[in-house]
Specification:
The complex is a heterodimer. By secondary structure, chain A is α+β, with helices and mostly antiparallel strands. Chain A has one domain. In chain A, 59% of the residues lie in helices and 13% in strands. Chain A contains two helices and two strands, in the order H-H-E-E. In chain A, a hairpin with a 7-residue loop joins strand 1 and strand 2. By secondary structure, chain B is an alpha/beta fold. Chain B folds into three domains: 103 residues, OB fold (Dihydrolipoamide Acetyltransferase, E2P) (Beta Barrel), CATH 2.40.50.140; 142 residues, Rossmann fold (3-Layer(aba) Sandwich); 42 residues, no CATH class. Chain B is built from nine helices and 13 strands. In chain B, the strands form three sheets. Chain B has a five-stranded mixed beta barrel with strand order 1-2-3-5-4. In chain B, strands 7-6-8-9-10 form a five-stranded parallel sheet, with helices on both faces. In chain B, strands 11-12-13 form a three-stranded antiparallel sheet, with no helix packed on it. In chain B, helix 4 packs across helix 8 and helix 5 packs parallel to helix 6. The radius of gyration of chain B is 57 Å and the shape is elongated. The chains are: A alpha+beta, B alpha/beta. The interface between A and B is large, with 40 and 38 residues.
């Protein structure tokens, strides 16, 4: 599940950013990665377009699936 | 009633006696029959006749009792009422005054459902260890319900708002009547055979106990029990229930609640992403602030002196370099000037104009071709002679 791995990576980044033993450059790189992931995730969660389909036909061998929305 | 023999009574006296006898003798009755001639009044009372194949009795149900009945009776309904006899003296009629009314057979239905529930419980169909976990981030949700029902609309609306990336697959079923149970169980099995989704919502909107009956039928219970896809049972309103609720992996009180359950993971994820973004931004801000502060203190103490030392050394080098550059530039210019002079002189020696200046001239014919020999200029040829200071035309005479 990529959403979940994304979230745990951002969590990790947030934790590392709070640590005092990293350089400013490392912080900046982490910050950029974290923001990019978070924005991408938000976008995916908000803007993704779902498919709504309906099953036509009762029998398994004649089944047909068409778009409803 | 021997004392009534040969006693003269007024109509009122007789009616009063009848009223007393009937009302005191016939109470706490439970009567089953068919509704006929149903006449609701604008004030909320119901007047009707209760009948069977041989007899009929007038009936009334007052507003104070009708509101407790969860359906509106119609012609031909088989009902069971409780109540007492009531005599209307002014007309000399009697009727049954109803306190409660329910559809006939409902009691039997409940008993049947209880028996079936016990049967499936003893078969182990409700066992907690059989419950499959509900996926937190499903990719596609199958919905077994009526394609035209409000339940489907609710599910589509709620999931669109909360998890717009979540695909929905509608498996249309009849949800009421005699064919319903079979179509519902067929759809559940179909979803499993074709592996059409990773979670199934099976349900419908609210209705009477009879309306919801298909979801308690054995074939539906078996299909849910056999399903490898986790099933959420979402039948009716919160107070309604069906046996599917017990066999399913999860019971949702309503179809809308089921839609909320399947989209909860994504909604949480969204909130989490937002919160984390803020956290990352805040941490970075703090980091920058600290760095800025450290930089400032460096500036004042060490930074200033060190920079001076560095710049002082370099300034000397820079001045030196500038001097060197100017000298070599001058050198280069002198060199170039003398070269130019020589080149100019060489060029002048080679110039045809310089030759002309020494007393020679250039001879060209009328077409401006250079005349290099006497053969090129027979007698009468017009020539052009170019001297150093201009040209003249000439004709060859001999």
């Amino acid at each position: 599940m990529s959403f979940e791995t994304d979230v745990s990576r951002i969590e990790e980044i947030a934790q590392k950013l709070n640590a005092s033993d990293i350089t400013l450059e490392q912080s900046l790189a982490l910050f950029e990665e974290g923001m990019r992931l978070a924005k991408e995730l938000e976008k995916a969660l908000e803007e993704a377009k779902r498919k709504v389909e309906i099953v036509l036909g009762e029998e398994t061998d004649t089944v047909e699936i068409t778009n409803l929305e | 009633m021997a004392e009534l023999l040969n006693t003269e009574l007024t109509v009122s006296e007789l009616t009063s006696l009848i009223k007393k006898t009937l009302e005191e003798g016939f109470y706490g009755l439970k009567v089953s029959g068919e509704i006929s001639n149903f006449r609701p009044t604008s004030t909320g009372h119901w007047f009707f006749t209760l009948k069977d194949s041989n007899s009929a009795i007038s009936a009334v149900m007052f507003k104070g009792s009708t509101w407790k009945v969860d359906f509106t009776p119609k012609e031909g309904d088989q009902v069971v009422v409780t109540g007492s006899l009531d005599v209307y003296a002014a007309r000399g009629t009697y009727q049954i005054k109803c306190d409660t009314m329910e559809k006939a057979g409902l009691g039997e239905l409940l008993i049947l459902l209880q028996m079936r529930k016990r049967l499936y419980e003893s078969k182990g169909y409700f066992a907690p260890q059989l419950k499959q976990p509900i996926p937190r981030y499903p990719k596609r949700v199958g919905v077994v319900t009526s394609a035209g029902g409000a339940a489907l609309q609710d599910i589509l609306n709620i999931t669109a708002r909360r998890a717009p990336m979540l695909d929905i697959l509608v498996l249309p079923a009849v949800v009421q009547g005699t064919t319903a149970a079979q179509t519902i169980s067929n759809r559940i099995r179909q979803a499993n055979e074709l592996l059409l989704c990773d979670i199934l919502i099976v349900g419908r909107g609210g209705g009477s106990l009879e309306d919801l009956l298909p979801f308690s039928e054995e074939c539906v219970l078996e299909a849910i029990h056999d399903s490898h896809i986790p099933v959420i049972s979402a039948v009716g309103h919160e107070i309604d229930w069906a046996l599917s609720d017990f066999v399913a992996d999860l019971r949702a009180p309503t179809p809308s609640a089921a839609a909320e359950l399947v989209s909860q993971g994504y909604l949480d994820l969204h909130q989490q992403a937002k919160a984390l973004k803020q956290q990352v931004a805040r941490s970075m801000q703090t980091k920058l602030l600290i760095a800025q502060q450290r930089l400032k203190s460096h500036d004042r103490v060490i930074g200033g002196k060190r920079m001076e030392a560095i710049i002082g050394g370099k300034e000397y080098l820079l001045a030196n370099a500038t001097q060197n550059l100017a000298t070599s530039m001058k050198h280069l210019l002198v060199l170039s000037a003398s070269r130019l002079h020589t080149a100019h002189r060489e060029l002048q020696a080679l110039s045809p104009l310089a030759i002309l200046a020494r007393g020679y001239c250039v001879v060209q014919d009328s077409e401006e071709r250079l005349v290099r020999s006497a053969k090129q200029a027979p007698i009468g040829t017009k020539l052009s002679l170019r001297f150093t200071d201009g040209s003249r035309k000439a004709v060859v005479e001999e």
